[in-house]
Amino acid sequence: MSTFTSRTVTTTRREWIVPTGPRGAALGDMQAAVLVATQDYRHYHLVEDHVQLPDDALVFTTTDEAIVISYTVEQPA
To answer: Which of 4, 7, 25, 58 sits at a 20 to 30 Å CA gap from 49?
Structure first.
């Protein structure tokens, strides 16, 4: 007889979207979005300012019209 359990996990992805024009995204817009995303990540995970974030803390993806900065959190439902 098998013994097992199950669980439900809720995934939340926080995103900051920087629009791109024909020549890409502006540096100031990217810096502002990265700063806010970093602060949000630190707040959520209780990481202090003097502690370096993991390399994979934030993910950058592209769409046809934007650069999307995000991180994902999983919680038991």
So the answer is: 25
